Amino acid sequence: MRFKVLLLVLGLQCVWLLCTAFVQERVLATGKVILLETRPVDPRDLLRGDYLMLSYKVSDVPTRLFSPPVKSDLASAYGTKVFVALTPGTNGFWAVTRASTNDFAGSANEVVLRGRIDPPRWGGTNSVHVAYPPAIAAQVAGPSFPRA
Fold first, then answer.
1. What is the C-alpha to C-alpha distance for residues 114 and 93, in angstroms, rounded to an integer?
2. What are the CA-CA distances from residue 36 to residues 57, 114, 119 (Å)?
3. Largest Cα span, the chain
4. What is the DSSP letter of 2?
5. Is the pTM here over 0.85, yes or no?
6. Helix (H, G, I), strand (E, B), or coil: what is residue 32?
7. Continuous H helices in 1-143
8. pLDDT tens column, 112-135
C-alpha cells in the first residue's frame, strides 16, 4: 500500500513538471518576441549598500498617452488594470504608443500588454508607473510568428 502511494506521489510530481514545461514551451512557440529597453536605477540602501536595479522604459507611461485622459487620482489608485500598446521603434526596441484603463485591441503592428498601476518610483510626476506580470510573454496579444 505504501509503495502505491509513493508511486502516485512521484507520478503526480512528474506530471506537474511536464505540464509546467509544456506551458512554457507553448508560450515560446506561439508568443511574439519584443525587445524592451532597460534603464538602470541606482538606489542606495543603508543596510545593503550600493546596488543596481534594472527597470523597463515602458514601465513609466506618460499621462498624455492615456485615452481617455487619466484623472489626477488615477496615479494613486494602485492596482488598477492598465492596457499599454507597444510598437517597434527605429532602434529595435518597442516603445509605448498609447495606454488606457479600458481593454482595447491592438492594430497589426502593435502588441498590447496588461499591467497594473504601482506606486511611482523615484519621483515620476507626469507618468504612471506600470508593473507587468513576470510572465509578460503570456500577456502579449497580436499575430505570432515562427521561431527561428
1. 18
2. 7, 15, 21
3. 66
4. H
5. no
6. coil
7. 2-30
8. 889 888 876 665 567 888 888 865
